Every structure is written in C-alpha cells, then in structure tokens.
Amino acid sequence: MDGVIGAPVDWPTRDLLSHRTAATPQRTALIDDETGATWTFAELDQRVDQVAHVLETLEIDHGQPRIAVLMDTRPAFVSVFFAAMRTGMTVVPLNVRETASELAAKVERTAPVAVVCEEATESAALEVTAAVESTATAPTVLTVDEPARERTRRLCPAAGSDTAPSVDPVSLERDDPLVIMFTSGTAGEPKAVRLTVGNLVASATASAFRLGVDPGDRWLCCLPMYHMGGLAPVLRSTLYGTTVVIQRSFDRHETARVLDEYEITGVSLVPTMCKRLLDAGWEPTADLRFVLLGGAPASSELLERCRAADVPVYPTYGMTETASQIATATPAETASHEGTVGQPLVFTDVTVVDDDGEPVSAGEPGELVVSGPTVTPGYLEAAQTDSAVGEYGLHTGDVGYADENGRLWVLNRRSDRIVTGGENVDPGEVIETVCAHPAVEDAAVVGLTDPEWGERVGALLIPADGRDGDAEIDLEPVLEYCETRLAGFKRPKTVGVADALPRTASGTVDREAVRDRLRETGTDV
Ligand SMILES: O=C(O)CCC(=O)c1ccccc1C(=O)O
C-alpha cells in the first residue's frame, strides 16, 4: 500500500530532526567555530539518539516531563534540544548569566526532572538544585562535559562512541509543548512562555517566506540559544535542511572573522552587535544575504550606516511569545519607509488598538495585538495569560502604528510611557530628539519617580566621541537644543552620561539599570 493516497501511515509523526535526516542525511547541519567540528544531519541525528537514550533512563513519574538546560550557545545545546523532542520532553532553557537565586526561582516554577549543564555551569546547576531541594523533587544534574563532581551524571557520551541503542521516537503532535522560555523581562517578573511544536514550525515557515531559502545557506548563530533569537535559527535551518554555524558568543572582531571565513549567508543580530561590527570596520561579503536585526529597535542612524556599508539589513519585530518574528522589513522597504519593521509574516495578524481595546485607523498609534499560528497557547501561569489575551489576540504591550498597507512601526513599550504631571511622554520621541544632536550618539530615556510630578523625564546620554571609556559631554548645548524642539514636560530633568547603555542579554535596554545609573550619577537640570 506504500505510496497510495489515503493509506494508513504506520509510523508515528517523528521529531523534526528525524524528518530532516530522512530527507537529506549527508548535508551539513552544524559547524562549530570553537572546535572546527562539523556534523551532517545523519551525524547529529546519531548524537541526538545517544543523548535521548540517556534521557530515557531518568526516573520520570509525571505526565509532562521537562528538562532545564543551563548552557551557553554550543552544538551540545542543539543535541539536547532535539533529544528532548525525541523523548517527548519539554525544554526549559535557562540564562547562564543569572544568579543562583534567580535560576532557582525558575526551576521551582517549572519543576524539571533534570538540569543539563556544561563544565562552566556545573557548580551553578548543583547550587540551584540544592536550593530547590526543600520545596520540590530535586532535579538530577546532567552535564554534557566531563563531570567534575560526584552528584553530576554524564549526559553526552564521549565523542566517537556509537554504542547507544536506538531510541523509539515518541509521536509528535502539533500542539505538544516543546519549549518553555522565559522572557528577558526588563520590568516585573519574567514570564514563562509555553511554545508548541506547531508554534515553532509555523514561525520557521513564515520566516522562509520573508527571507527566502537558498540550499547553500549558512546561518551564523552568535546570540544565546536560551533566547528566542538564538534558538529560532536552529529550528529554521532544520526545516530548510541548511547549515547553522555556531559561535559561542559575540565579539566584534571574532564575529567579523567568522562571517568572512565561513561565507555566512545570514546572521541574527541585536542592534548593538551590528553597530559594533560596523565600528570595527567590518564589511559584508558578497555571500551575505541577510542580517536579521531584532531584539530591540534599530536607530535610524544605525540603519543609515548599514545602507552606506551595503549591509542587507532586515529589521525585525518579534517576541518570545510569538516564537520570534512577528513582522520583518526587507532592505528595500527599510530604504523607502524609514523606521518600519515591515509587514507581519504570513498568517500573522497585527491589530493596533486604543486604550479601550478597540482597533484604531491606519497611522494612529496604539497597542499592538498579535494573533496567528506562532502565538503561544499561553504562559505557564494562567493568570498571566488571562490578563494578556483579548478579543484580537495577545496584547504585546508595545505601542506602534500601521500604514494602509499594514506596514508596522514600533514606537516603545507601553509600560515605558512616562506620565509626568498628567502628560504622557513617549520616550522614543525624546530619544530621537537628543540623538539628533551631534554630540550625542545614543540615549535611553526613562521615568524617574518625582514627588511633585509623579514622574520626571530622565535621560542617559552616550557621547558621540566617548567610545574609549571616558564619557564626557557638554550638556548645555544639548539641553538648549531640546528647549526649541521639545515641550517643557518632555525635556529631560535628570541627565547622566555613560560609555554604553546597559542592556539585557537579548539586547534590549535595561531600563531599571538606566534608572539606577541616573539616581546615582545623574545631574538635575
Ligand atoms: O525580542 C524578542 O524577544 C525576540 C527577538 C528575536 O527573536 C530576534 C532577535 C534578534 C535577531 C533576530 C530575532 C528573530 O526574530 O529571529
């Protein structure tokens, strides 16, 4: 009956890597810059089988087993991710930069059966599991490297070993939970976002419609894989049968070298990284098809520099809750429609709504509400889902507007809005103004508590020539400049100067750190 339409299929819907391996076993799946090692899909698949086999030996006594991953960006992250999928587990990526108490809170919330670590995070993983011992069943600590401590077990078999028996892949349904990823959250408690297999496949598919796929593609992954921007290229490349080049972390000179050396065709960057590459004199090779620029808004100055340097830049707007991209602009749109993040990806809908949740007309700013197949079925904690979902979909908390063609512009986070003496101030507008002054290269604008006005506008300025660690700026002309361009209530009342804006791991400005900085070193003007 093979090949007859309608004939029963007698093998379960296997994990995504199995499908890929069956189709193109000999194509290159991964290249690791750190070791120079490469894996074909068949080799990766075999590795994943070995890891899956170890995961299967864990004592699991509840229905939806989860494993936490406390590892930096490296090939073993990919193996563990697909091994979890193969055994029907949900992966909980954890941020290696967080403290043990922050991590322990996340482990408590998600109750994984194991925490997978590497040499560099083994002691943190042990500390975290010890911390949750009293409140939950302590997770097993597994390491992908050589275990250094007695309580740790080895997860990945030594390279070259091929003795593990094959694992029976569990069936995979579109709505199965695959990942629980924490938002990087600059305000409030980090939210635990549930993403299904269907969300991730829909995202990778829609991404291909916007960026295109070339069989020779090599996607450089130098963003942390515990964030959506770092994990998404792995899913995309597995769907397309193309190659991921893994760099453990970003460095302007090293990343410029890797882009050249591996003839990279696409790379995901946050704006700060892109700016640093350009500062370091990097020039794109002819191979480079796209720079997917996301995680934070790109300034018009940066986009202008990209244009001047022939960088094929695709500014993108996305979030963990939508498994990465919501809307992405092409280089042509970036040139013709300044500041746009483009149209939503295929099957994704964005509605701009007012404070009452009613849609506004084109050109009017409001909150962006998103719906479609990439949108999370909900946060881990149901109450958070209830307060975020409305008639038109998931409320992003971002303010923006759309033109008649559905092209989007993102202005700022709704919660970033400053309310001073009853007036709303859009931080983006103040940033644009101060950055237009030649002495200012970049700025962050936040609300500071004010006894009289509720909040007052605070601005942290990065001087145009302060790159080498001695940030200084003549404030007088900048303030004068603002006086003629901004209403009194919008003008910065507390001003500070720094070498660089404090940022979270995903590239967004860390607004709480900006506030601290202004409280400690700001001048009231
Ligand atoms: O802001 C977020 O949380 C998602 C950001 C994100 O996914 C991303 C960040 C940088 C570069 C590319 C991407 C992407 O959409 O793939």
TrEMBL record:
One of its GO terms (molecular function) is ATP binding. SUPFAM superfamilies: Acetyl-CoA synthetase-like. Pfam families: AMP-binding, AMP-binding_C. One of its GO terms (biological process) is fatty acid metabolic process. Residues 19-380 form the AMP-dependent synthetase/ligase domain. Residues 433-507 form the AMP-binding enzyme C-terminal domain. This is O-succinylbenzoate--CoA ligase. Coiled coil: none annotated. It comes from the Archaea. Keywords: ATP-binding, Ligase, Menaquinone biosynthesis, Nucleotide-binding. Belongs to the ATP-dependent AMP-binding enzyme family. InterPro entries: AMP-bd_C, AMP-bd_C_sf, AMP-dep_synth/lig_dom, ANL_N_sf, MenE. It comes from Natronorubrum sulfidifaciens JCM 14089.
